[in-house]
Design the sequence.
């Protein structure tokens, strides 16, 4: 305990997130009643002091490792299903959905106390719009997430290059029979569900009010990812994570990977923005609260 106190005293965690997600948010207001709750201050738009803080880079490394592991496991799962001639002999679509949802559950649980456990540029973007983190941190997270996704898909290809090329590399593409509007709508709604769940599961005021009810934030977040994949795998293969889509597309690097790739950026960012606005304006009514 002495080492921990010293670490805090010298400012190693000076620039942590104002409103971390996951288990960090779960315990933030555990001993606070709802009547004593005070809205935490918004993160500054730009915080240059973070650039000289080790905790800032430690959080970025945590995002990199988590996103790398996420891509590695999930792309391998997708390829395993694509490889089999009979879906009955593999985990199938349900298994793919469990792979994505389960990895998010595990990785958010592991990294929430360090970086907030975003593992997704759309989540980072939504939290940035809600002023939960600075632009400095948001840009750094997104860069680390994208680099990690590229590395994760690259390692999978490195292990089995021929199968990777033959099986499509887990790339997100618009399925036959669906229009661009269908794909874009699926990505918007799917990301809305995810980011809305992130906001709700990690709401500091809700945790303060319902502190007698144990809340494990990574569980509903992972479950939301699982359900969205069940619904939208037949349409787009389920993106809802621009880094995941970019990593697979860049490593596979065939025309089919880039034909409608913009959908997997525009859709998730629109969905994340709508979720942030809905939570802040409708659910929390923050703009209308008297000072």
Sequence:
């Amino acid at each position: 305990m002495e080492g921990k106190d010293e670490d805090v005293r010298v400012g190693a965690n000076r620039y942590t997130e104002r409103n971390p997600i996951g288990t960090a948010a779960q315990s933030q207001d555990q001993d606070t009643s709802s009547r004593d709750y005070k809205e935490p201050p918004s993160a500054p738009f730009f915080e240059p002091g973070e650039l000289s803080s080790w905790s800032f880079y430690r959080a970025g490394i945590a995002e990199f490792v988590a996103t790398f592991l996420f891509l590695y496991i999930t792309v391998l799962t997708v390829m395993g299903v694509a490889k089999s001639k009979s879906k009955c002999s593999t985990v199938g679509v349900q298994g793919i959905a469990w792979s994505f949802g389960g990895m998010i559950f595990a990785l958010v649980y592991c990294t929430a106390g360090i970086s907030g456990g975003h593992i997704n540029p759309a989540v980072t973007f939504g939290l940035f719009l809600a002023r939960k983190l600075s632009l400095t941190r948001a840009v750094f997270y997104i860069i680390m997430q994208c680099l990690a996704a590229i590395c994760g898909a690259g390692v999978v290809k490195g292990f089995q290059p021929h199968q990777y090329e033959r099986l499509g590399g887990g790339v997100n593409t618009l399925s036959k029979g669906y229009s661009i509007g269908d794909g874009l709508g699926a990505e918007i709604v799917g990301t809305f569900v995810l980011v809305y769940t992130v906001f709700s599961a990690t709401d500091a005021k809700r945790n303060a009010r319902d502190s007698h009810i144990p809340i494990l934030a990574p569980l509903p977040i992972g479950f939301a990812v699982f359900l969205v994949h069940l619904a939208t795998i037949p349409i787009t293969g389920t993106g809802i994570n621009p880094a995941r889509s970019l990593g697979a597309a860049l490593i596979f690097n065939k025309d089919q990977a880039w034909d409608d790739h913009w959908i997997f950026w525009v859709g998730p960012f629109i969905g994340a923005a709508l979720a942030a606005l809905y939570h802040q304006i409708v659910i929390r009514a923050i703009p209308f609260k008297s000072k």
